[in-house]
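Lab meeting tomorrow. Look over both lines:
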Amino acid sequence: MTMSAFDIGLVGFGVDGVLNGFYVGTGRPEFNAYAAVVGLVITLAGDLTLITRYGLMGAAVTSAVAYTAKALALVAIFVAVTVPRAESCRTTDGSRQAA
């Protein structure tokens, strides 16, 4: 049972690794630090509350939740940085004439 809880977090860990490399490769490693703070806060809270009560299972759940939260934070940053906003996609008369 402990291993299956940890396996869920490995999906988040994989996403984390890919986006971590993307941000370093594109010269924006500070985004990794922001997401790491999210993971750290969840890890500390989970360790203090779940491990004392549930032992190894609490550690596995804490890790899975922290990995997933960090991955979600990296994905949210990725979407915010790379997806163009609707107002920047509008064509104006000036841009039509330039083309």
Remarks:
- The chain has a mean pLDDT of 85.
- Residues 56-82 form the longest helix (27 residues).
- Helices lie at 2-25, 30-54, 56-82, 93-98.
- The chain has one domain: 2-98.
